[in-house]
Amino acid sequence: MPDTVEAVVLTEARTFETRTFPRPPVGPDDGLLRVELAGICHTDVDIVTGGYPTPLPLIMGHEIVGRIEEVGARAAQRWGVAAGDRVVVEPMVACGACPYCTAGDSRFCDNADGYGTVTSSDVAPHLWGAYSPLMHLAPGSVVHRVPDGTSAEVGMLCTVAIANAVQWTLARGGVGQGHDVVVQGVGPIGLCCVAAARAAGARTVIATGLPRDVLGRELAPEFGADVVVTAGEQDVVAAVRDATGGRLADVVVDTTGSPQALRTSLDLVRKTGTVVSGGVTGKDVLTPLPMDVVTLKEIRLQGVFSFDSSSVRRAMTLAATGRFPFEKLVTHRFDLHDAEAAIAAVSNHDLTDRLKVVLVP
Predict the structure, then answer these.
(1) Which of 68, 168, 183, 351 has its CA 20 to 30 A from that of 139?
(2) Burial class of residue 190 (count of CB atoms within 10 Å of its CB; 0-12, 13-18, 19+)
(3) Contact (Cβ atoms closer than 8 angstroms) between residue 143 and residue 136
């Protein structure tokens, strides 16, 4: 058994290098993960370009699926896993003691460690991210065993894309039986939001995408969209009015990160409806909104950040039904040492067939 591990490390903005670390010892309360896939999202792009504050040097990779390589006895009992099990790992390792943790919302932990975004590779035992063949599983990690028959690709999607969709569309958006729903954006999270709305019993599901979102718009009906609208080529508000019999949407879930799309979302929602804003525009971008529209229509404008553990469990249940072709979302695979090219692929809007990009350690 090798006693060292080679991982890809972000040392400064736009600069990766391969570094060698000692293989971590496994005690009774922790474990070691053999990484199968590391998903890449736009947060990773922001980290690489310096737009998202993270400690460096950093082993990136916060969308994590793999198999248990080693596990301590108490950790195995706590997580309900054994060596060889396929698992997904939530990116946050909460402290359990700060006001947010004690209030039951550890997503906002004041003292968190974490995988791929929070903890530097300078911190022992160093392997704090999935851009590595092996990853440390700290005692406070949240680990979910993947149901038998679920692929690594779909398991990985359950940690972010599907879990976020469940959290944003159902838990925060309140979508349920008989609702008319608009999902702005047909990337991986947007398509998963379409599926979540359809599974929840929505009456009408409308997806919007840009002309460049060729594959996303093509796949939207397979994920449950009744209507697909091409923003920039069609009048989105008119299309939603037509699809809903003039009622407009009960809930609009905006996954785009576009200030203009968020502004349009206010015109797509009915009076007293809900707009869920899940797209990140960047900390220096001001997004002017016509607050009179929010006030006079009594719109509930709900910001959303991430998912919680219950949404991961619900995501895996939804995926296990086989109702939606989540595996089609993974379109591009790169070798671990091609991390720079993988990040570039996520940023390349000319790749009209690109949805989810993954690294394969």
Answers:
(1) 168
(2) buried
(3) no
